[in-house]
Amino acid sequence: MNDKHPPKELCEPMFDGGLYVFLMRLTEPQTVQVGALGLFDFAAGWYLYTGCAKKGLAKRVERHWSLKQTLRWHIDYLASAPSSEPVGAIVIPSSAGLSECYLNQMIGQKFAGQIPAPGFGASDCRQGCPAHLCFSPTPVSLLAIARVHLDAAVLIPKAGIWEPPLHRL
Ligand SMILES: [Zn+2]
C-alpha cells in the first residue's frame, strides 16, 4: 500500500464500462445452435470470449454465468449448453484505452486461438477478427489472462466481489 492507492479503494464499486474476457469450460463436447449463425460442434475444453460493455460491465459479465430467460448474444447459446461451466472473467476499464478487437486478437495469439465458430460474437466487428471466441484444448487460468493488461481485474462467479488489479494491491 502507498499513499496513492489508499485501502478504501478496495471497497469502491467496480468501474462501470470497459472490456472483458469471459472464460468458460465445456466438460463434454457439445453441438450448439448459435442463433442465426448456425450449428457448430464445440470440443471439450476452454473457451475465451472477448466483449465490451459501455456501462453495466459487472452485470453484463455476471449474465454470462446466470440462467437466462432470453438468449441474446452468441455467447448466451454456448454458456447455456448443458456441459458448460463458467470459470470467471477479467475486466479492463474503458480508461485503459484498449480496443475490444485488439484485446480479442491478443487473447487469440496468447491462448492457442483456435476458432471453433467463425463469426461468433463478431457481428459488429470492423477489425477483421475471425471471431470473438477462441478455444484452447488445454487449461487456461484467469490469472494468465489477467496478465495481458496492467489494469485487468478478475471477476469470479457468485463471489459478488472483484479483485482489483494486482499492481494496485
Ligand atoms: Zn473484432
Written overview of the protein:
The protein is α+β, with helices and mostly antiparallel strands. It has one domain (7-168). Helices cover 17% and strands 28% of the residues. It has helices at residues 57-63, 74-79, 100-110, 142-146, and strands spanning 18-26, 30-34, 38-42, 45-53, 84-93, 133-136, 153-155, 162-163. The strands form two sheets. Strands 6-4-1-5-7-8 form a six-stranded antiparallel β-sheet. A two-stranded antiparallel sheet has the order 2-3. A hairpin with a 6-residue loop joins strand 7 (153-155) and strand 8. The longest helix is centred in the middle third of the chain and has 11 residues, at 100-110. The N and C termini lie close together (6 Å). Mean pLDDT is 87; it is low at 5-11. The structure holds zinc ion.
